Amino acid sequence: MTLPTPSPEEVARLKGRLLWFALGLPCLLVTLFSLSPWLVDRAKDLIAVFAVDTAWTGRYYTNPDLEGRPAEVREDPVITFDWGEGPPFPGWEPDGFSVRWTRSERFEDGLYKFAFRSDDGLRLYVDGDLIYENWVPGSFDWGEVERPMAAGRHRLTVEYFEDTGIAFVQVGYSLVEE
Q: How do residues 111-126 score in pLDDT, each as one tens digit?
């Protein structure tokens, strides 16, 4: 049995499919952008629409008041820290520090639950609006706040300070099932 010889169009289509599977999306995007100046002009808009922060940006201060320039800045995948009676970084004092975490995230339309625990102070903001504040020294605080969120991108900010003793903070959020 002899297999038929594919036409040049079929060969080109097969090569395109193999290239897609072999090199993935970046190759496809380069090909599309090279063929269409219109896509090149809109690349930044496309990237902005689909970009999602993968981490919180943590700005760490050596004072409890979030004052001055941060001594350390790093990407934290989640806000879940239990430093105990130790410092957040080697060489730091174990008490009297603060952190401001920020991220931008796309939300679905709905009611969200923001849950947290901390020792000592904590503030939560959505789009600059303060939705929770317990900015006082003290031991273990645990709670949650429900907030309706419109579909789209929202800016989240978490502020934390450690006074003395044990230091921990944890913050998360999820869509409330209806």
A: 999 999 999 999 999 9
